[in-house]
Design goal:
CATH superfamily: Response regulator
Oligomer: single chain
Number of strands: 5
Strand content: 15-25%
Radius of gyration: 14 Å
Order of helices and strands: EHEHEHEHEH
CATH class: Alpha Beta
Shape: globular
Mean pLDDT: 87
Strand order of the largest sheet: 2-1-3-4-5
Number of domains: 1
Number of helices: 5
Structural class: alpha/beta
CATH topology: Rossmann fold
Helix content: 25-40%
Low-confidence stretches: 67-71
Length: about 130
């Protein structure tokens, strides 16, 4: 029987990355709400009271979104998570000081550079949701 006590919202524009991360998290007994665009992200955030943590893959976020979301950059969603007191992590394909500063300024608990080390990611997630590793 699976323990789905902790609910994680995962955003990645890259469908394969989203599938892989979802698989790893579900195998670690987390309930995953996987989203691949801002429409799905808004739907996931509408249930923010049930979220324990969000994982935001920044790669391609604002470039891949429809014109109707042009005024809604990823940072506004990060600020929404911060306002709801939902801890979140951001991922980036390469280190970028400006991205790191923007992430942290908007409430990210940490900024991770891909490729992710899964064992370390799971330990970090565990510490953020208050679960023993």
């Amino acid at each position: 029987m699976r323990n789905e006590k902790y609910s994680l919202l995962v955003l990645s524009i890259n469908k394969r990355n989203l599938e892989l991360l979802t698989q790893v998290l579900e195998q670690s007994n987390y309930k995953v709400i996987a989203v691949g665009n801002y429409v799905e992200l808004e739907q996931g955030l509408s249930n923010s009271a049930t979220l324990d943590l969000a994982l935001i893959d920044l790669a391609g976020c604002d470039q891949a979104m429809p014109a109707s979301y042009a005024d809604r950059q990823i940072w506004s969603y990060c600020e929404q998570l911060q306002a709801a007191n939902i801890p979140f992590l951001t991922f980036t394909p390469q280190y970028n000081r400006a991205v790191e500063q923007n992430s942290l300024a908007r409430g990210a608990s940490s900024v991770l550079v891909k490729p992710l080390v899964i064992k370390n990611l799971l330990l970090l997630i565990s510490s953020l949701v208050g679960r023993s590793a």
